Structure formats: C-alpha cells, structure tokens
TrEMBL record:
SMART domains: PKS_ER
Similarity comment text for this entry: Belongs to the zinc-containing alcohol dehydrogenase family.
Keywords: Metal-binding, Oxidoreductase, Zinc
Cofactor field: Zn(2+)
The protein's name in its UniProt record: NAD(P)-dependent alcohol dehydrogenase
C-alpha cells in the first residue's frame, strides 16, 4: 500500500510552495521509506527555482532530512524503527565510490540533481493522480515521508534529537569535511573561510577542532561574523572592505594562509581567496555559481592549488557519526546555527534564509 504523505510541493519555479497530500510508492529493492522528523533548508534547494533549470515540476525538494525508517524494500538490512540521517545518493559501484569518494560518483548528477529516480518514473502522486517529482538528492525530504536508498541512509543512535540532525547530511558535512578531509587542516595551520553561512560556519568549527591557530571568517553580515567568533574564528573581516586582502595577509605576517575555503561562488571573492594563500596553499571551492572564475596566472604558477570539493569528500556513513560524537562532546555545536519552522511555514523559512536572518532553517513536518 502506498504511504500517505504531506509535502511542500513546488509547482512553478517562481511560485509559492503548496502543502499537499501525496501518495508515496512502496519502497523497491534497496529503498526505504523514512518518516521525516526534520529537514534542513539549504541554499542548494534554491536550484529548484532556477529559471530554465533541469529540475522538473511539480517537485518536492529538501535534501537534509532525518527521521525514522517506516518501511524497507527487498534487500535492505536497515530495520523499520531505526533512526537515520539522510545524505546525498551515490551508486556505490563506480571507481570513485569504490575509492571512498561517493561525492565524485559517476552518477552524482543523475542521482541527486534532477529529482528523478533512475528509471524515470516519479514515485509520488497528488490528489488528482498526477505525478510529482521526487528523489531530490535521493530523498525529497520537505515532507512527512521520504523515499531514500541504503547508499544515502545513515543509521544513528536512538537517543538523539532527530529533528535537528538533518543538516549533518549536507551543509555541515560539506563544511566540516572540506576542512578535515579535503584540505587536511592541521594544528598550527591558518585558514580563511569566505562566507559565514551554514557551510562556512561548519568549516570554522572544524578548523577550531583541528587546532588551526589562525581562522579568518569573511562575510558581509556583522551578526554572522560575531557568530563565527563565538565558534572559533580568531579573526572576522568584512568582505566589502577594499583593504580586505591586505588585512588577510597581515594576519599571517605577510606569508599568506595555508588554506582557504570559498562558499560564495562569487568570482571576485574566489580571486581574493586565492591571492590570500601562501605560495603552496590550497583553496577549496564548494559554492555553485553562474559566472566563470578569473585567476591571476602568476599566483597559480608560483605553486598555489585550486580544487573543487563535493560534500567535503566525506563518506556519510563514516563521517556523520563522527560529527554527532563531536556534538555530544560539545566540540561541534552545529545546533547553535539552527532555527526551526513548521513545514507549513516553508515560505517564511526560505525568505528568512535569503535575508540572512537565520543560518540554518529546519522544517518540522
């Protein structure tokens, strides 16, 4: 029997979300139905609104869900009743998946970015029997129930506040993983983080964990900069300051940072991030932008590295439990970034996120 769900449906790129009753198909092989306790609103979900984008409509978005397994398809060893965090989907069989780099999966776009199961058949239907697209990032969790796969499901302990854990599946994983895994920040290093949203602030917390001695947060929002200081940033700089690059270099005595992380995808910001590096430094890019980057070839020839990072190069089943344990110890307080909203208030949550009034909205079905 299909599962009766309630979801926030986006029918037009520039239209409002509508809270609608839907029927969710039974899980197939390797699939699970998860009752959602909370789902983070991420800026990546705004790609569903991109004009002329590849995300079909109507669609249920949401890719930072957490909840409890209600039903499991054939071949699934995760039992109903298991609390889980949902992350991005991957095939588990390509060269990068076998090399423990599922974020670089050969099917990354097909499994995550198009809100479409690989067989091309949406698994949600509305009250009139019409198809509603789902499986955005392998879940579509702006709903009471989501269909996920074993590959993007992470079992967790049953004594946790499930409603708060969803952001660990993407934003927090990306920021922390970029620092701890991709860039390999070590004790005594310096890092400049550009953008103090959820990903950037997770990076700040991770850099503090790693023992970085110079952690510069750069943003336009004074409240975000204050929050960054409270989470471990040693310096907080206004990104609009025309003297920004000189200030960044001064923090390192003129040598430049070992690491930089850009979360903005603004070309001018990326150029500053690369210029702020020491000659052998590395700049990681996690933002998705529409304009090309222009980098000074002289800076690149001197030994700097620029690299893209997907989901912090993390294996969710390994990394998310580690972040949870760090949170239990009070060393990764991601919950300080969260503000909760009823699912019915998704429009207000989206507006507040765009206005910079909240760092990480979490929708409670």
């Amino acid at each position: 029997m299909p599962t009766r769900a309630t979801a926030a449906v986006l029918r037009d790129a520039d239209g409002p979300y509508a809270i609608e009753p839907l029927d969710l198909a039974d899980p197939g092989p390797g699939e699970l139905v998860v009752r959602i306790a909370g789902a983070g609103f991420c800026h990546t979900d705004l790609l569903g609104r991109a004009p002329g984008g590849r995300v079909p409509k109507p669609v249920v978005l949401g890719h930072e869900g957490a909840g409890t397994v209600e039903a499991a398809g054939p071949g699934v060893a995760i039992a109903p009743g298991t609390p889980v965090v949902l992350s991005f989907d991957s095939c588990g069989a390509c060269a990068d998946c076998r090399d423990a780099r599922p974020g670089a999966c050969a099917q990354m776009a097909a499994r995550n970015m198009f809100a479409m199961p690989l067989d091309g058949e949406p698994r949600l239907t509305d009250a009139s029997g019409g198809a509603v697209h789902n499986r955005w990032f392998g879940q579509s969790s702006f709903a009471t129930h989501a269909l996920a796969t074993v590959a993007n499901t992470v079992p967790v302990d049953d004594d946790l506040p499930l409603e708060l854990l969803g952001p660990l599946g993407c934003g927090m994983q990306t920021g922390a993983g970029s620092v701890l895994i991709s860039l390999g920040v070590r004790a005594g290093d310096g890092i400049a983080v550009f953008g103090a949203g959820a990903v950037g602030l997770a990076a700040v917390m991770a850099a503090h964990l790693a023992g970085a001695t110079r952690i510069a947060a750069v943003d336009l929002n004074p409240a975000r900069l204050d929050l960054a200081r409270g989470l471990g940033a040693t310096h907080a700089l206004n990104g609009a300051d025309p003297d920004l690059l000189r200030q960044l270099k001064a923090i390192t005595g003129g040598a430049g940072f070992e690491h930089a992380l850009d979360t903005t995808a603004v070309p001018e910001v990326v150029a500053t991030a690369v210029a702020a590096l020491r000659t052998t430094g590395t700049c990681g890019l996690v933002g998705v932008g529409a304009r090309p980057y222009t980098l000074d070839p002289g800076l690149m020839l001197s030994g700097r590295t620029v690299r893209g990072i997907i989901e912090g190069d993390a294996v969710p089943q390994r990394f998310i439990p580690k972040l949870i344990e760090l949170w239990r110890q009070g060393r990764f307080p991601f919950d300080r970034l969260v503000a909760t909203y009823p699912l019915a208030d998704i429009g207000r949550a989206e507006a507040d996120a765009l206005a910079g009034e909240v760092v990480k909205p979490v929708l409670i079905p």
